[in-house]
Amino acid sequence: MAEFTGSGINLFYVNGENGDDDANNGESPGAAWKTFQKAIDMVASGSNPQSYDEIRIMKTSDDSTYYGGATGSINLSFSNKYVHFTGVNNKGGVDGTVVEMNGGLLDSSTPMLYISVSTADYVLFSNLKFDAGGTAQHCVEIETASGSAIDMDWTNCRFTDATSHGVYTNADPSYWNFINCRFDNNGEDGLNMTSSNFAMSYKCLFDNNGDNGGHFGGFNRISECVFYNNGSDGAQINGNGAVVSNCVFDSNGGAGAYFTGTRQGVCVNSMFSNNTGAGITPSSGAAMRIHNPAFYNNGNGNYWSPTSDHLSMYNYVSGATTEWGGTADFDFTPDSASPLLGAGIVSPYRWFGSTADDIGINKFRAEGGESISIF
230 in a domain, yes or no? Predict the structure, then answer.
């Protein structure tokens, strides 16, 4: 099967096993650079790669070794370049292969990928696993004195095993998009972007993080995501203009979701189940509108201090003790006895192989093609 790229897009390659930063020009798999940092430095140099070019990080026989030798952060140091970094197979082809960057040689004060330039905009990352190895501080960090890196996209990436946050932002990285990404087993939040506006998380999994699954700023769009088994809240969400839809908040140590903000946001068609705290906890004065949710088996009540302008068309579901097919495999399909079947408002169309009134479920069913390949 032939590959196609846009007109004028040039391809460059990195091969941590067989590449050479000094002797090679990066223009073919056989002339690949050796390190991710070399590719970034070449973009920053103003020569090649240029905007809209693609840098392919090639699979090796042992990624954790060949992409795990850095003792300092990879520093993204260029400005305003529309470049694409993507993992590829060992031949240099794009087929969904995920390449691992490993931070096992870093310490708890050092992030794996550090973005320090406020105008490092428009970069796309795909098919990459950032494994902090239980030693690096964050998988990705952006911290700028002023401004922000905007319009960054992350597709089919994984951020795992950092001592602090999986992704940490201490700026205003607006218009970031996370699609088919996983944030898991980090010491604090999976995703911490409290200052970000107009970001989107779509079909992402936030699981087994020590603190919150995600901590989101205002005007966020969060859709088709699962927040599972996080140590604190499944998600803390600034509801100022936020839109949350068709999500599952299950088995978290705090609330399923904690909503803040005084400007109206909306949460629709979502499921809050088996959380140690309440299904939903709003902060004082929160103006989030919760439409067509279902609540099941939350330890501290389903909705903390509900008021008439917060909830509409809601369901307190009771009955069978097991509602999911098997959460160990992230299978959020209800079993045949589940009271979740048919809960919610009936809609006259089908969704992911199930009727749309089954709130917040059937997110990652492999038989329906709804899977996250990073798994």
Answer: no
